TrEMBL record:
Keywords: Membrane, Transmembrane, Transmembrane helix
Name of protein: PH domain-containing protein
Domain PH: 1-32
Biological source species: Arthrobacter saudimassiliensis
Membrane keyword on record: yes
Region forming the signal peptide: none
Length: 162
């Protein structure tokens, strides 16, 4: 509803369009969700296995965050200029990430201090939390399905008929 002068009334939501680049918002949400789970795992790892448990959890969390955040950052950079190309870049970056992730794990090997159980548990928990946060944030992104401005300019009587 509008007031008498045509201004929107207080307390009502105004319509809005597509988000220009939603990827950073998705990144922040996923980072917060996995960070909360990572912090809980870190406290548990420290209490149960000491510093090596804490280090194992931290190492797992950093690897998982780096693995997933890279795609969202590339999506943000590409999506600003070419929103349609962002999904194609996700596919390309995914292949590169898998190779890099395997290389990191192979070249580092298993450090002496690493607690395998805590590493695996934290990696799985962080992955699930990241995916849940990413899905939640992505489900709230607004995508432009129809370009009303372009459609309006091509209507008969608009002066822009083909």
């Amino acid at each position: 509803m509008s007031t008498a002068d045509g201004a929107p009334a207080a307390g009502f939501l105004a319509a809005s369009g597509e988000e220009r680049s939603p990827w950073l918002k998705v990144l922040k949400t996923a980072l917060a969700w996995s960070g909360a789970v990572g912090a809980a795992c870190a406290v548990a790892g420290l209490a149960a296995a000491g510093v090596s448990g804490l280090g194992s959890v931290a190492f797992a969390w950093v690897l998982i965050v780096a693995f997933f955040a890279l795609s969202l950052l590339v999506g943000h950079l590409v999506g600003r200029n070419n929103p349609g190309g962002a999904m194609a870049m996700f596919v390309v970056v995914y292949g590169i990430k898998v190779v890099l992730f395997a290389a990191v794990l192979l070249f580092l090997g298993r450090p002496e201090w690493l607690e395998s159980g805590w590493f695996l548990g934290a990696a799985v928990a962080a992955t699930i939390a990241w995916q849940a946060g990413e899905i939640r944030a992505f489900s709230r992104v607004r995508f432009l399905l129809y370009d009303d401005a372009a459609d309006a300019s091509a209507r008969p009587g608009s002066g822009r008929e083909a």
